[in-house]
Design brief:
109 residues, SH3 type barrels, two-stranded antiparallel sheet, 0% helix
Length: 109
């Protein structure tokens, strides 16, 4: 069992499958906020009741990425090479989910 006072700014938030969702940018009495980045287009609030466990500097949530409302990856965010991305090309958000092997794959529309 974790203590809410153990959750600090700068820790990494992960879904229940271990996928990194982002870093904590703020903590308040109700929960904490994940900073915007490759998963969230805006800062994302999380209640302490949504936390499953802590492991060092990692905070594990009870849910997986696909079940978090507002969780989106920028198109191509998982590609190692950035050949397709150009600074002037707008990003279209794409929802991702975990397949049966645990890999992160785009959801079909």
């Amino acid at each position: 069992m974790f203590k809410p006072t153990d959750i600090q700014r700068g820790m990494t938030v992960r879904d229940r499958d271990g996928e990194a969702l982002g870093g904590i940018v703020a903590v308040d009495p109700r929960g904490f906020t994940i900073g915007k980045g490759r998963i969230f287009e805006r800062e994302y609030p999380v209640r302490f009741s949504d936390v499953e466990d802590l492991d060092g500097d990692d905070v594990y949530l009870r849910r997986d990425l696909a079940s978090l409302p507002g969780a989106m990856l920028a198109e191509g965010a998982l590609e190692l090479e950035d050949d397709h991305c150009h600074p002037d090309t707008p990003h279209r958000p794409v929802a991702y989910t975990h397949d049966l092997t645990g890999a992160l794959v785009p959801m079909m529309e």
